[in-house]
Amino acid sequence: MEIRSVVPARCGPVDSAPFPEIDEAGIAAALCEKEQEDMRRPLVLTSVTVAGITLLAPSASAEDRVDRPSNPDAAMAEYDGKTLDLSRSWGGAEVCVEQGDSSFRCYDDDAAYRAAEGVGRPGSDYHTKDFGDCVGGYVCLWDNKEFEGRRVQFKSVGRHNLESVGFRNRANSIGNHTTALAVMWDSGPQTSLAVKARIGLDNLSEIQGVNGTWNNKIDVVEIFIDD
Ligand SMILES: [Ca+2]
Ligand SMILES: [Ca+2]
After folding, report:
1. How many distinct structural domains can be found in the chain?
2. Which residues surround ligand 1, an ion (CB under 5 A)?
3. C-alpha dihedral (29, 30, 31, 35), degrees to nearest 10
4. Residue 171: nearest ligand to its CA?
5. Which ligand is nearest to the CA of 148?
6. 3-state secondary structure of 149
């Protein structure tokens, strides 16, 4: 274990925030003060070593039955020969992974995911309640604390609306296994939690924010361009 700190994403006006209905200017000063206070508070985080993992191309598509989404922003995923609307249901899937074209593929479990996408097991990091289960190059969110339960993985730069993948207000632990900054957003009122590259937070109920703890609060994940 090592002591690291989490820093706020932005302090001051948030002119490109994902919740335009909120009076951002009115809360910016309060957010700044609170986030600076949060930044001074050290957090005990799990340290990891980034495994030298190569992502291979996903397997060929199956002939899918397409269920039309009720939500136009819904993310569609291939799973078990069918197409899922993730905003409505994950079916029996345990792991859903963003692909290069921003679509998703879902799997029964971590082993099925690694076999299908050619991702090797990272040795001792595998299923050790370490965010090493989040393959390098991805930001991962887990439904339960300590990097357990259902997991969604994102890799493309930009904002990912968790409502679209059925994961809004669900994440209890997160891992940023990229080399870029990742920012978590909550809308009630709008606030953000920045997670530096290669940092995992194993229990969001221990992370205090403007809206209480961050447990089951994240609405949007934003991945920044690598510096
Ligand atoms: Ca949860
Ligand atoms: Ca929320």
Report:
1. 1
2. 143, 170, 172, 216
3. 110
4. 1
5. 1
6. strand
34 lies in some domain? yes
Domain that includes residue 197, residue range: 2-50+64-223
Rounded to the nearest angstrom, the distance between the alpha carbon of 97 and the centre of ligand 2 is 21
Q: Give the pLDDT confidence of 166-198 residue by residue, as tens digits.
A: 999 999 999 999 999 999 999 989 999 999 999
CB neighbourhood size of 88 (10 A): 13
Which CATH number do you get for residue 180? 2.60.20.10
Shortest-distance ligand to the CA of residue 167: 1
Domain assignment present for 208: yes
Q: Provide the 3-class DSSP secondary structure of residue 113.
A: helix
**CA distance readout (Å), 102 to 35, 62, 108:** 31, 17, 20
Q: Contact at 8 Å (CB) between 35 and 5?
A: no
Q: Give distance in angstroms: CA of 175 to centre of ligand 1.
A: 15
- What is the pTM assigned to this prediction? 0.70
pLDDT in tens, 55-104: 233 333 333 344 454 577 899 999 999 999 999 999 999 999 999 888 99
